[in-house]
Amino acid sequence: MTYKMKKEHAFWATVCLLLSLVPEFLNALSEEADDTDSELGSMKPLHTFCAMKADDGPCKAMIRSYFFNMYTHQCEEFIYGGCEGNENRFDTLEECKKTCIPGYEKTAVKAASGAERPDFCFLEEDPGLCRGYMKRYLYNNQTKQCERFVYGGCLGNRNNFETLDECKKICENPVHSPSPVNEVQMSDYVTDGNTVTDRSTVNNIVVPQSPKVPRRRDYRGRRPWCLEPADSGLCKASERRFYYNSATGKCHRFNYTGCGGNNNNFTTRRRCLRACKTGLIKNKSKGVVKTQRRKAPFVKVVYESIN
């Protein structure tokens, strides 16, 4: 009997002790929540849309993009589906930082030549999600050299080059753009939009004019991936997919192998048409222009008698 009473006393003593610790535990949780709220509130992004969550949209394309994360206060990568979504989406990491992080100043690392390395040169090795075996090269920021790695065939990041020379040219030993020359050697060298015919008119300085290629931001809202040709990919599966043909303005069916390929790849014809507007064609000089059907001109035939 005495043993049973001691056992009950010990049980109730334990219960009382645990109940006494509950208020302290709840206070600790509330303090932690307050600290988290104050931490989130300490940084106000430059624009309201920077506080939106990443939205990949309803389409099924795979476009590498960036968004500002309010909880980590950093710009992070995500995969965009290709249509709709929200404004918290950027084509480059640098654009995201400049738009959403207050007081951000570009801290690009310069090589010995003085040329800047792109931001993606500092990304870590990423073989992607597929299981292919492709020899690629990446820039290792620790060794300051381009090194070989195995790429799976899809996704990954932009620190991924097909040849060693390409990696070295862009990330290991970036070079300045060519400086102007002092002699006229080709008739297609132009300055101020006019062909150079007299050296004295341009002070013996001519600049070769590169072809006018539309910048990426000029395509914003026009879906540039819709101009890419159908790409079946690298694997051996056979999936029915649809791609947009910019010449015909229609979505056509093709077989997708399951990995690799490009962003002009949709699971249904409806999503293809929804992502890529009809009536767009590729124009070498003006990028993308809308076309309209025109009625054939009326031709009047006149017959004359021959005497």
Short description:
Keywords: Blood coagulation, Disulfide bond, Glycoprotein, Hemostasis, Protease inhibitor, Repeat, Secreted, Serine protease inhibitor, Signal. By secondary structure, the chain is α+β, with helices and mostly antiparallel strands.
Uncertain residue ranges: 32-41, 106-113, 177-222, 278-294
- Major beta sheet, strand line-up: 1-2
Radius of gyration: 31 Å
User: What sequence of helices (H) and strands (E) makes up the elements?
Assistant: HEEHEEHEEEEHEE
How would you sum up the global shape? extended
> Quick one: CATH class of the largest domain?
Few Secondary Structures
Alpha plus pi helix count: 4
Q: Give the tally of β-strands.
A: 10
The average pLDDT value, as a whole number, equals: 70
Strand percent estimate: 15-25%
Domain BPTI/Kunitz inhibitor: 50-100, 121-171, 226-276
Site (Reactive bond): 60-61, 131-132, 236-237
GO molecular function, one term: serine-type endopeptidase inhibitor activity
Subcellular location: Secreted
Task: Describe it.
The chain has helices spanning about 1-40, 95-100, 165-170, 270-275; strands at about 65-70, 75-80, 135-140, 145-150, 190, 195, 240-245, 250-255, 280-285, 285-290. Strands 1-2 form a two-stranded antiparallel sheet. Strands 3-4 form a two-stranded antiparallel sheet. It has a two-stranded antiparallel sheet with strand order 5-6. The termini are far apart. Helices cover about 20% and strands about 20% of the residues.
